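Figure 3 (text version): structure tokens given as input.
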């Protein structure tokens, strides 16, 4: 997995961020097991709650194109700080990814980043297994 390449894709995705209300622009790039990359940006709405985060945009684009099986996602914001995904996006990641192996790349810049597992971000996740008992 080329973390720097994925971060570059996340910054490219951020260019299309539609964030007229928060002014907080986010891009994400999701890597599939077979090497494809799906980009996503945040898309806001005047009614606020329909807003979709960059991470979920990337996941929903990928799943709606038939992709399943993901290895990593890179997330890039405007600020020189590590941007961690919101709780809703973590839950969506847990739906489609192995919490132990899926890598979340938090980019501060193209040069500075941290790699964490989904397990670290979402310990004791609720999943389909809990529903089945
Ligand atoms: N946002 C993301 O796209 N990803 C995150 O990880 C955190 C928040 C978006 C949602 C909203 O458009 C804006 O950032 C401010 O919360």
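Below: residues designed for each position.
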């Amino acid at each position: 997995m080329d973390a720097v390449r994925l971060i570059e894709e996340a910054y490219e995705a951020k260019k299309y961020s539609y964030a007229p209300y928060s002014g907080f622009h986010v891009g994400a790039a999701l890597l599939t097991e077979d090497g494809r990359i799906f980009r996503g940006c945040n898309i806001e709405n005047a009614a606020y709650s329909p807003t979709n985060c960059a991470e979920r945009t990337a996941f929903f684009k990928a799943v709606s194109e038939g992709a399943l099986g993901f290895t990593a996602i890179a997330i890039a914001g405007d600020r020189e700080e590590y941007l961690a995904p919101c709780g809703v996006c973590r839950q969506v990641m847990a739906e489609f990814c192995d919490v132990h192996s899926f890598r979340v790349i938090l980019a501060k810049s193209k040069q500075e980043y941290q790699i964490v597992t989904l397990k670290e971000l979402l310990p004791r996740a609720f999943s389909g297994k809990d529903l089945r008992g």
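The chain has a mean pLDDT of 96.
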